[in-house]
Amino acid sequence: xxxxxxxxxxxxxxxxxxxxxxxxxxxxxxxxxxxxxxxxxxxxxxxxxxxxxxxxxxxxxxxxxxxxxxxxxxxxxxxxxxxxxxxxxxxxxxxxxxxxxxxxxxxxxxxxxxxxxxxxxxxxxxxxxxxxxxxxxxxxxxxxxxxxxxxxxxxxxxxxxxxxxxxxxxxxxxxxxxxxxxxxxxxxxxxxxxxxxxxxxxxxxxxxxxxxxxxxxxxxxxxxxxxxxxxxxxxxxxxxxxxxxxxxxxxxxxxxxxxxxxxxxxxxxxxxxxxxxxxxxxxxxxxxxxxxxxxxxxxxxxxxxxxxxxxxxx
Amino acid sequence: xxxxxxxxxxxxxxxxxxxxxxxxxxxxxxxxxxxxxxxxxxxxxxxxxxxxxxxxxxxxxxxxxxxxxxxxxxxxxxxxxxxxxxxxxxxxxxxxxxxxxxxxxxxxxxxxxxxxxxxxxxxxxxxxxxxxxxxxxxxxxxxxxxxxxxxxxxxxxxxxxxxxxxxxxxxxxxxxxxxxxxxxxxxxxxxxxxxxxxxxxxxxxxxxxxxxxxxxxxxxxxxxxxxxxxxxxxxxxxxxxxxxxxxxxxxxxxxxxxxxxxxxxxxxxxxxxxxxxxxxxxxxxxxxxxxxxxxxxxxxxxxxxxxxxxxxxx
Lengths: 314, 314
Fold this sequence. Notes:
Number of helices of chain A: 14
Shape of chain A: globular
Largest interface: A-B, 22 and 22 residues
Radius of gyration of chain A: 18 Å
Oligomer: homodimer
Order of helices and strands of chain A: HEHEHHEHEHEHEHEHEHHEHHEH
């Protein structure tokens, strides 16, 4: 799949931002390594998700574009599909949990998507999307379990290594595994010696258990502040890729995630959402004892005001 | 003074960060102009103040360095002097109001400075510093009213125009006028057609009144959230420079400042302190109706958690 990532990278040129790499002397000292932060919080739509969404929508046929697309997402993928749809002239519909952060729903609608809310305690977002797709002829663009999405997400790690040079470690947040598998394929493609580790919240450790047992585990609506990782499991596409390309998985506590968001706010002046701070949480908590050059994907910055307020004053 | 800014720029190379320029399509649309954000929140110590502090300390004689320096500051200058002192091996003492944000005092002490607190309602920070300087032989490094400080602060605008090209407008926060006068001298030196405007809080509008009446006005501990602008007045060095090089002054309300901090948080994922957001406040509130290419100095990012929490949930 590495060639698909290179092709996605060409496709995204001039549409996605080539996001900057930031650096913190304090973080280096605490981690005992040279840490390179790939700032996908500065990506269009506020998260890496734009990469996969734009790549997938670019690959639709004219007929598919004319009929429109549908997706299901707790937030950042929704915004990304909505924004990519607006840029490419494709009508978009998003099935979104009714407890999704208000900022994410507002941003999705602001980009012109139609939002269909559902109750995550009783409904199945995929089934709802499939029913609407069958009724209206929409193409389903899943949030992670799709080769074109995986290829798009892999471009962030590709850019990081192209811009910063070879890495000894690459730490990547893991929800459904789209960013993680894409990052791992990209890293192995350009820097084979790089050790790629997926980071999950302890309370949403389905992928870590799946990785270690080589059997798919699931969680149901786990109580983590990292809302981007509340996905039930790795997917049919991403699970085999994670098994093949990822070197290890680690988990971090909710306190470690909160501490990482706070650290990034105070010491680097970056607004990073809890899911985006998982790699830094792994370094600060000691879950990863890295050395050498460590890449960290800060996957997004879409955090609600009340959540950040709680983190800053807690 | 333009040559002094060019010299400071050489002196700072490899010590200060050449901070990035950020851009927001949403801000451009709201302002009706192309807005270029010079991110001094990413400067060492979290604010532009490092530039002037490092420049001033670099110019000390060996004897002055050996005796140490003293300054008085509500915060960012204090951190900058402490950090520059640590890097250059100069002992630093800071006279700081006892109501200064906790994060700023902690950071100043973290860089190795000795902090002498005083009550701003009853004490005069300059007199306290002068008494300690006389007693211990310290050199006083004022927060803004010093040509070497002004020259250092001017390097941010110089970099902005060197990196982004000519500007039609440059919006600069104004406290004691060190950043504003340095920025104006730099802008006129490299882009003579650039209109330089200083921005102040309405409730701390001493410099605006001084500018329009050409007579020095003062305020006493004004009740603005923009703590970097709580300075009593322009200084003997900065007032004439502001009169000579600055094109205009404008004020913004406390609500406009808060809205700008919030906008920068949500839409650009940047942590910017209230004083640093004055230029964006002027654009969003309509205090400045700019067109063409507009440079804005985001002067710092050192904001207390409780203050940011209030802004995000207010």
